């Protein structure tokens, strides 16, 4: 097993852990970078999103879920494991995040147009968030879920337990 810290290393935002086993590739969280680190949101992922099997979401703070729509834009089509409460709030949070990004890019583009600069696009749009709920597997707290014969997970309050067999 190999774990790569793709965010929240030397910073508190952008939580994202890429885990590779002999048979699976998955993430624990896929968060947005905030503040001075926000430029990192537009950097390519250090893995191929289309190769991911699934994502485990620990909770619905934007620094833990904020780049999930970008995963889908880049080819991810796997499952997302989250508690029911996290899944419900995640849907609201991602739409709100997209709305803010759309407004910010619109505002930036007004300024850029006056300077003759190329327009910028939001990281993702509200439309990009609409299909995500169909990929979410809502999990109960404290129940072990067998992802496959080698990976099990259990979402607890607070936090997550998972293991390889």
From TrEMBL:
Residues 13-164 form the Metallo-beta-lactamase domain. Its EC number is 3.1.-.-. It comes from Fervidicola ferrireducens. This is Ribonuclease. It holds the Pfam family Lactamase_B. Keywords: Hydrolase. GO terms for molecular function: hydrolase activity; RNA endonuclease activity. InterPro entries: MBL, Metallo-B-lactamas, RibonucZ/Hydroxyglut_hydro. SMART domains: Lactamase_B (SM00849). CDD domains: TTHA0252-CPSF-like_MBL-fold. The keyword Hydrolase applies. It comes from the Bacteria.
